Amino acid sequence: MIAITAPARPERVLRGLAVRQVRRAALVVTTVCAGMSALVVVGYQSEALDPAALAALARNPAIRTLFGEPVALDQAGGFTVWRTGTVLAVLLGVWAMLAATRITRGEEDAGRWSLLLSGGTTLAVAVRQHLGVLAVVPVLAGAATAAAMIASEADITGSVLHGIGLAAVGIFFVALGGVSAQMFSSRSAANGAAAAALVGGLLARMVGDGMPALAWLRWLSPFGLMALTRPFDTNRGLPVAVLACAALLLLALAGGLAAWRDVGAGILVTADSRPARTALLGSVPAFAVRRTLRPLAAWSAGIGAYFLLPGLIARSMTEFLTDNPQFAAMAAQAGFPALGTVEGYAATLFALLAVPVGVFVAVRLAAVAADENARRLTLLLAAPVTRLRLLAAEVAVAGCAALVLITVAGLAMWAGTATVHAGLGMGDAIAGAWNVVPIVVLCLGAAVLALGWRPRTVAAVGALPAVGGFMWQVIADSVDAPSWVRALSPFAHLAAVPATAPDWPAASVMAGIAAAGAVAGTIGYRRRDLSA
Amino acid sequence: MGVSALRTENLSKRYGRLLALDNLSLDVAAGEVFGFLGPNGAGKSTTIRLLLGLARPTAGRARIFDTDAADVATTHRKLAYVPADVALWPRMTGAEVLDLLARVGPGTDTAYRDELIQRFALDVSKPAGTYSTGNRQKVALIAAFATRAPLLVLDEPTSGLDPLMELQFRQAVGVARDNGQTVFLSSHQLAEVEAVCDRVGILRAGELVEVASVAQLRRLHHTEVAATFTGTPPDLTGVLGVDGLHNDGVATVRFTLNGSPTAALRALADADVATIVVREQSLEEIFLAYYGQNAR
Ligand SMILES: Nc1ncnc2c1ncn2[C@@H]1O[C@H](COP(=O)(O)OP(=O)(O)OP(=O)(O)O)[C@@H](O)[C@H]1O
Ligand SMILES: [Mg+2]
Question: What residues of B are in contact with residue A287 (Cβ under 8 Å)?
Answer without folding.
Answer: 100, 104
